[in-house]
Amino acid sequence: MAVVIDDHLLLDLVAGEASQAEQEAVANEVVYTTGCWYYRLARAVLAGSGDGSLSGRLDALGREARDAALESIRRLPDEVSLLSLRTVAPVMATLRVRRALNMLNAEALAVALVTGAELRVAVGSSCCATAPTTSRSATKSWPEQARR
Fold first, then answer.
1. Interval 90-107 mean pLDDT
2. How far is CA 147 from the centre of its chain?
3. Taking a C-beta distance cutoff of 8 angstroms, is the pair 82, 32 a contact?
4. How many domains does the chain contain in total?
5. 18-23 long-range CB contacts below 8 Å, 24 or more apart?
6. 82: which strand partners?
């Protein structure tokens, strides 16, 4: 099975602070993140103030762990895959949900649909707060959606 992880879980992974379940996912499953989540993490830790939820967590690490995490953010580890917007954007454009999705949420849902992956987000993630809990179109595969 594949999983899509958000920016907070990606930080846990590159900082060596991933939960047992996330460590097992990396060892046994294909792990994806989205371009938006990767950008949000990189922006927060490379140009952040240190006061935000992502940059603050990075600043709290010891020097060696912080340096290793920064290097992994600058050059995403091979264990974490990214899909091109060439693949994902057409799926994002065809999502039909009750409430409009922002780009971050639409990309996450589209990557999960294209890859057949489970979508994992940190507790309290904005994706949880704004994404629909059910969607008929979200249960269909991308090729099936494209034929509509």
1. 92
2. 27
3. yes
4. 1
5. 22/120
6. 33
